[in-house]
């Protein structure tokens, strides 16, 4: 299993997580994925990456530095994207049930990303 | 597509092309058939530009498919040329009526991932349109040149530049 695969496997162990991906922020393409059957990975990856690029521009325009996290909540689920510096231009994208403990997702992602760096 | 079919079936393509361009944040988009006949466009101001891009796009599609066949493959899903300011996407697809090619140009407002996602939606929409979901006879050799011109005349009203 690749380093990214290990990262995704650890994030996916958290209760409520339906899958996670490492996505190229500029291209919106999936680098590595570990998703439940039926989760539309390519569409989610492309759209979340697009959102993140716009969020990053907004944060920069407001002179708040670089954007680190993006979270979009729907009625029945949530999308979470993180851009830790250790991943360069890659995003960690997590698709989860709405009741998922996002703090735990962030904590677990941070631990693994630090290990990668 | 024959000259006589254009007004009947080509008009229906414009709405899906507009939607594809809007949703994928495309700067330019051109829909042609494998002969290079222009069926719909968005973003081009001059017929001359459309004619050049259509001819080049059809040629790239034909040569790339030939290359794929030489390598024992049926074809390619799409071609993508990256760039700092502008990127080009060439996506061939089949409809029951005939094979079509999308040529799209996009910048930093979009991404190849987004274009791929909305291209898949676009091809499904076109394949379900009346006139494009049935097998139709394609143009014959004698009428090829006349039908090729008809695509541009249909879009630009006979003005060449």
What's the gist of this structure?
Chain A has 117 residues and is of the alpha+beta class. Chain A has helices at residues 3-12, 41-61, 102-116, and strands at residues 17-24, 30-35, 69-73, 77-82, 90-97.
Sheet with the most strands: spatial strand order of chain B = 2-1-5-4-3
User: CATH topology of chain B, anyone?
Assistant: Beta-Lactamase
Poorly predicted runs of chain B: none
Class from secondary-structure proportions of chain B: alpha+beta
What distance separates the N and C termini of chain A? Answer: 17 Å
CATH class of chain B: Alpha Beta
The helix/strand series of chain A, from N terminus to C terminus, equals HEEHEEEH
Termini of chain B, distance in Å?
A: 23 Å
Which whole number gives the mean pLDDT of chain B?
A: 85
Strand content of chain A: 25-35%
Biggest pleated-sheet summary of chain A: 5 strands, antiparallel
């Amino acid at each position: 299993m690749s380093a990214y695969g290990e990262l995704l496997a650890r994030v996916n162990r958290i209760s409520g997580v339906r899958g996670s991906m490492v996505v190229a922020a500029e291209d919106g393409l999936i680098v590595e994925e570990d998703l439940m059957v039926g989760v539309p990975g390519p569409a989610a990856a492309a759209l979340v990456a697009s959102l993140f690029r716009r969020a990053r521009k907004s944060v920069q325009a407001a002179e708040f530095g670089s954007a680190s996290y993006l979270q979009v909540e729907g009625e029945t689920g949530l999308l979470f994207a993180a851009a830790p510096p250790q991943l360069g231009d890659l995003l960690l994208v997590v698709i989860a049930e709405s009741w998922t403990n996002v703090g735990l997702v962030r904590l677990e992602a941070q631990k693994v990303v630090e290990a990668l760096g | 597509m024959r000259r006589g079919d254009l007004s009947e079936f080509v008009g229906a393509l414009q709405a899906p092309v507009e939607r594809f361009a809007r949703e994928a944040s495309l700067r330019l988009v051109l829909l042609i058939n494998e002969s290079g006949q222009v069926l719909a466009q968005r973003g081009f101001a001059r017929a001359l530009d459309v004619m050049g891009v259509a001819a080049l796009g059809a040629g790239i599609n034909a040569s790339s498919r030939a290359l794929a066949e030489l390598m024992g493959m049926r074809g390619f899903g799409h071609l993508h040329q990256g760039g700092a300011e502008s990127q080009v996407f060439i996506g061939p697809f089949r409809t029951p009526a005939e094979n079509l090619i999308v040529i799209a140009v996009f910048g930093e407002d979009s991404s190849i991932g987004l274009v791929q996602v909305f291209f898949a939606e676009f091809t499904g929409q076109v394949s379900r349109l009346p006139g494009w979901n049935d097998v139709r006879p394609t143009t014959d050799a004698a009428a090829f040149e006349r039908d090729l011109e008809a695509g541009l005349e249909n879009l630009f009203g006979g003005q060449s530049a």
